[in-house]
Amino acid sequence: MPYAEIVHPDDLPAADGMREALAAAPGSCAQAELRLRHCDGSWRTVACSAEDLRDDPAVHGFVVTGRDLTERLALEA
Fold it and tell me: How much is the pTM?
């Protein structure tokens, strides 16, 4: 699924910036806090960390990990 279908429209510039930063520097890492659509249709705030492993023959792509911050942010508010 294209990431533009799960990233909140207001967060697409940050997601695009993260992808562009990775593409500009092979082997680099980037981080962003994005709202992503959950399978139930709600929006979840996720701290994303991505690494460009396109030069790694075992991976050949971007690896993205995320940590859901939604509940913590709600408690803090």
Answer: 0.82
